[in-house]
Structure formats: structure tokens, C-alpha cells
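To the wet lab folks,

You asked to see what we're planning to order before we commit. Fair enough. Below is the target structure as C-alpha cells, and below that is the sequence we designed to fit it. If anything looks off to you, flag it before the synthesis order goes out.
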């Protein structure tokens, strides 16, 4: 298959260079049938490529037919508005994986999915469609999603099974159930990541509440602007979930997660992406996923993604890895990423008909493989010392295969990480103490957190921020729906404020806003000359006009408990797939890479042998 793709690419190059249009005479006649001139052209190119003439002629006929179909489709689209979509089916179908489907662009994604399922024999709820590197949204029209004439659509099966080919009722029912379970799993993934991302800034007790944090290459937490923090958290969370599926070789489920990660990364500023290697690794994982699905031709911008990854690595690691060497002292572990990069660049060039460039990149990948190969006996020796296989591989690559140096490196890294974790725990403990201190002064949890965030954790600065921004004082910790359902302030507390010299109406309004907190009400009135500021006056009016009780206040306890259980389940599923080792993404046995390097090098070397004979 790979060799055929190479020939297709090479012949397409020749046709472009010779400015030959196969859909026109003398290669295609007026009835759109093949012309006699095609055979002569096939003979010319087969001699040039040292290939079988019949094979070249067959491939050129495929190229001609596709060009004729495209031309017919273009004319049809202009006159009727009916677009043609090139549908790429899963690799298990072997033959006829590329198919054309005609459709209007005003239909919804759900209607297109149904049409594809009916046309190609899938269960509708058993597939996902990827177009323009995005999942097809079922509720939006194709036009709204940027789907155009001649676009490529890739069909992903949620679960692959040898029983897929059976058509009896029992198997079909099992498939439907599997699809529903996978869809639920994907939805739980989304909800779990959202919960953990939201907790990052809201968590009160880090020891008891799981949450996501972002660390730099040394393992220390880094501050991210709140406007981008959630997007980055979701991007990294989806990436980890996708990587977990990649490890299990569930590529059809991994790809949607990776594409979602790409979408959220794009919401982050360029400066932020240049400081971490996650975005570069994601580009490699996406291209790798397309390749393993056998759908690399579906990814029009594979070259762009690989160049983007290379540029991101350069910015993050520095020229010749200088920044990485400064931070970590070595770059042996990160070379695994470059091996994957060179391998994918070699594969892409081969599929594009660029034999020489393919050989250059594949040879680079081979050289790195030799350098990074870990001797199983050395891994075993380190495991005998109490280290994990993953630590052993990473340590050996960091220390050029020296077992003694690797043992010291791993031990030192463990101590360093323990110290960093201790410092991070202390930092979170101080933050919790500061929040409690501000709460003790009458401020709400939300106000305390927001002020401390703005003050970079400095308690004195946070106090100044609160004093100069009284609008923060009335932020409370209740749900928005319950904020307004407050009882009228007690007369006793109104009297206290009146005794201090404040007007009774202003005192009552302030107590309503601050939920009977006399201290905050008094501070606000003093700061504003005995009155509430305009924005707080509106809040007081809103709360006074809202009924203090609601017939639904006591309802839904069981439902809330069920929702909480579902959220806990969603969070636990995410946590199961987040690796304990911070350099898990750098660890690979390289078994798959070894096989693929050898396979594609054999293809390229066959081309070189043919060229020498020629």
C-alpha cells in the first residue's frame, strides 16, 4: 500500500512537471473513456521509474478517473449546488476505502452521519466523522462548519472488533451498546476535565480534593493568566486522555481527544505555547494517529503540523537544545520526540513521492534509534535497584546508557521532585492559611481567592486590593440562584450600624448585600461616604425584589447526590489516565518505531536500487 502511494505521488509529480492533463484529449475521449495515448505515457513513465508498465498504467488510469470524476463533480456542483465529499473509510475495510458521496451543504451533521452510515453499512451511532481536522458537529449545518465541495471526510469507528463483519441481530445489538458506552465515556471525559480545570483556582484543600495543575520542565507550578488557564488545562487534559488511548492503540477514540486538545491550545496566546513543549508533542501525536489509522492522506496539512512541531521544539528547547541543557543538564530523553518527528517527516515525504528527502529523514530516525535503544539487561539491572522500567529507560537515555550514572541520575531526580512537591505543598498550605485569614476578617472565599491571585499570594497586598476594590467584598460563595434569596436583615444589626452613625436605609441595603455581615457593611459605607456604590445598590434592589423562599429550595436532594456521584466518577476516570511520572510522554520502548523505520527504509532503498539500474 505504501509503495503504491509512493508511485501515485511520483506519477502525479511527473504529470505536473510535464503539464499533462489526463482528463483532456488525447488521454480522455469525448465519452470520458480512456484514450490510446495513456498507454504510451505509461510506457514512458514506467521506463523512467524502472517499474512494471502494467502497474504504472493501472495507477495512471486511477488518477485519470479521479480527475474526470472531480471535473464532473465540479460541473454538477455549479449547476445544482450538490457538493461531493470524498469519504475515507476505516482501514479494516481494505478495498475501496476512498468513496465519493454527494450531498447538499445545508443539511446537518447528524443527517450527513446518517447518510454515510446508510451508504457504507455502518451503525449510525457507532461512528464519528472528522472533516477539516475537527469532529463533525451533529446539530450544525455543514455550511456552518465550513464544509465545502470536494472536502475530505474521515470515518472513525468507536470500537473495532473482528465480529464487525457479522450481520446477525445479536452482534448488531452489542455494537450499538458498545457505541453508546464509548459515547458516554467521551462525554464523561469532557465533564471530568472541565471539573478538574475549574478546581485548579477554586481548590481549598489540595490534600483532599483532586485538581489539575500546570508545571514547568523542572516540575514547579507556573502562574497562568486566568483568562487562558482553563483553556490550557482543558488542552493538556484532553491531550493526556488522547495519549492514554494511543498507548492502548485505540486510535479511533484517541483522535477526537487530540483534536479537541488542539482546539483548546489554539485559544492560548503564542507566547505561552512557545514556553512549553506540549503543543509540539500534540502535533506529532495527531499526525502519528492519522498514520496509524492508515489515513495520512486525509491530513492535508501533515507537513505544516510537522514543521510547526519542529519550530515549537526550537523555541522551547533553544537552538541546539541549549535552553534544555541549561534547565535539565541533558537532552537524551527529549531525543525520543525528534526520532518520532524525523520518522513522520520521512513517511510524509515518501508518500509525497520525495524519495531522497524520505531517506534523509528516515536515516536520521535510524541513527537516533541506535543512540536511544536501551539494553534490556541494563534496564533489568536498574530495576533490581528498585527503580521502575520507565525510570530505567529515561535514566539510561539521559546518561548515554551508563548504568551507574543512570542510577545516580534517577535517585537525584527523585530527591529533587520530592523537594519540589514539598515546597509546592507548603505554598498551597500558606495560600489556604491566607484565605482563612481573610475569611476571618469577614471576606468571602471567592473575594479572598481573587484578591490573593491578583496579589501573587502576598497577604498584605491582597488586603490593600480588597480595601481599594470594595466591589470584591460582596462576592459570596453561594450559587448565583441562591444569592438573591436572602432574608431581610435583622433589626438588631441595622440598629448597630445606625448607632455607628449610618442612615437606616443605607444600613439595611448594605446588610442585605453582605448577607448580615456587619463588618463588611460598615467598611463599605465608610469607604463610600455612608452610601453604597452604584453597582452594589443595583444588587441590593435585585435581592429585595426577589422572594425569600422558593418551593423548590428543598427539592432535588437525591438528584444533587446523583450528580455528585457522576462527577466523582468522571474525575476518577481522568485521574486514572494521567500518568504519575512527569516525563511519561518522553518514555517509549520504540518497538513500533523500530519496525516502521525498517519497513520504510526498505521501500526507499528499493527505489534507490531501481534508480542505479536505470
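Sequence we intend to order:
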Amino acid at each position: 500500500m505504501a509503495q503504491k502511494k509512493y508511485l501515485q505521488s511520483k506519477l502525479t509529480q511527473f504529470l505536473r512537471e510535464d503539464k499533462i492533463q489526463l482528463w483532456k484529449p488525447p488521454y480522455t475521449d469525448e465519452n470520458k473513456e480512456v484514450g490510446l495515448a495513456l498507454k504510451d505515457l505509461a510506457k514512458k513513465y514506467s521506463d523512467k521509474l524502472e517499474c512494471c508498465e502494467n502497474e504504472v498504467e493501472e495507477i495512471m488510469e486511477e488518477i485519470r478517473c479521479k480527475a474526470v470524476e472531480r471535473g464532473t463533480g465540479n460541473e454538477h456542483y455549479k449547476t445544482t449546488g450538490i457538493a461531493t465529499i470524498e469519504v475515507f473509510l476505516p482501514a479494516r475495510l481494505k478495498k475501496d476505502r476512498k468513496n465519493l458521496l454527494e450531498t447538499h451543504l445545508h443539511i446537518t451533521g447528524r443527517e450527513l452521519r446518517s447518510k454515510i452510515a446508510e451508504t457504507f453499512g455502518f451503525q449510525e451511532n457507532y461512528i464519528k466523522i472528522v472533516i477539516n481536522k475537527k469532529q463533525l458537529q451533529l446539530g450544525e449545518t455543514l455550511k456552518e462548519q465550513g464544509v465545502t465541495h470536494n472536502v475530505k471526510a474521515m470515518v472513525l469507528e468507536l470500537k473495532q472488533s473482528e465480529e464487525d463483519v457479522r450481520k446477525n441481530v445479536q452482534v448488531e445489538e452489542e455494537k450499538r451498546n458498545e457505541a453508546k458506552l464509548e459515547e458516554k465515556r467521551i462525554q464523561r471525559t469532557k465533564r471530568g476535565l472541565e471539573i478538574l480545570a475549574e478546581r485548579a483556582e477554586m481548590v481549598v484543600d489540595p490534600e483532599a480534593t483532586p485538581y489539575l495543575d500546570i508545571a514547568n520542565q523542572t516540575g514547579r507550578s507556573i502562574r497562568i493568566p486566568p483568562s487562558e488557564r482553563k483553556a490550557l488545562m482543558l488542552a493538556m487534559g484532553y491531550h493526556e486522555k488522547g495519549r492514554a488511548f494511543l498507548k492502548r492503540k485505540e486510535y479511533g477514540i484517541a483522535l477526537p481527544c487530540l483534536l479537541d486538545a488542539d482546539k483548546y491550545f489554539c485559544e492560548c496566546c503564542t507566547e505561552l505555547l512557545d514556553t512549553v513543549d506540549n503543543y509540539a508533542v500534540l502535533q506529532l501525536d495527531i499526525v502519528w494517529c492519522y498514520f496509524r489509522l492508515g489515513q495520512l492522506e486525509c491530513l492535508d496539512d501533515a507537513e505544516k503540523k510537522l514543521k510547526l512541531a519542529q519550530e515549537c521544539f526550537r523555541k522551547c528547547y533553544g537552538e541546539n537544545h541549549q535552553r534544555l541543557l541549561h534547565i535539565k543538564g541533558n537532552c537524551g530523553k527529549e531525543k525520543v520526540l525528534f526520532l518520532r518527528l524525523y520518522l513522520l517527516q520521512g513517511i510524509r515525504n515518501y508518500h509525497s513521492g520525495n524519495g531522497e528527502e524520505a531517506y534523509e529523514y528516515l536515516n536520521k530516525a535510524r541513527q537516533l534509534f541506535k543512540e536511544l535503544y536501551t539494553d534490556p539487561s541494563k534496564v533489568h539491572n536498574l530495576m533490581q535497584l528498585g527503580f521502575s522500567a520507565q525510570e530505567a529507560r529515561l535514566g539510561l537515555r539521559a546518561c548515554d546508557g551508563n548504568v551507574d550514572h543512570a542510577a545516580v541520575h534517577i535517585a537525584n531526580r527523585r530527591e529533587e521532585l520530592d523537594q519540589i512537591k514539598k515546597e509546592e505543598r507548603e505554598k498551597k498550605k500558606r495560600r489556604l492559611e491566607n484565605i482563612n485569614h481573610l475569611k476571618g476578617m469577614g471576606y468571602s472565599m471567592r473575594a479572598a481567592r481573587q484578591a490573593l491571585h491578583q496579589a501573587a499570594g502576598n497577604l498584605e497586598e491582597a488586603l490593600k486590593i480588597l480595601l481599594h476594590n470594595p466591589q470584591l467584598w460582596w462576592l459570596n460563595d453561594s450559587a448565583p440562584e441562591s444569592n438573591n434569596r436572602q432574608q431581610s436583615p435583622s433589626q438588631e444589626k441595622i440598629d448597630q450600624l445606625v448607632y455607628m452613625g449610618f442612615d437606616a436605609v443605607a444600613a439595611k441595603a448594605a446588610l442585605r448585600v453582605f448577607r448580615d455581615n456587619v463588618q463588611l457593611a460598615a467598611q463599605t459605607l465608610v469607604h463610600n461616604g455612608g452610601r453604597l456604590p452604584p453597582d452594589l445598590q443595583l444588587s441590593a434592589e435585585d435581592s429585595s425584589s426577589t422572594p425569600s423562599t422558593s418551593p423548590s429550595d428543598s427539592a432535588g436532594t437525591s438528584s444533587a447526590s446523583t450528580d455528585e456521584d457522576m462527577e466523582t466518577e468522571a474525575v476518577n476516570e481522568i485521574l486514572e489516565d494521567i500518568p504519575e511520572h512527569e516525563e511519561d510522554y518522553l518514555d517509549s520502548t520504540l518497538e513500533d518505531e523500530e519496525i516502521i523505520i525498517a519497513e520504510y527504509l526498505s521501500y526507499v532503498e528499493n527505489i534507490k536500487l531501481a534508480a542505479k539500474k536505470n
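Structural context that might help your review: The chain is about 60% helix and 5% strand. Residues 164 and 367 are 41 Å apart (CA to CA).

Thanks,
Computational group
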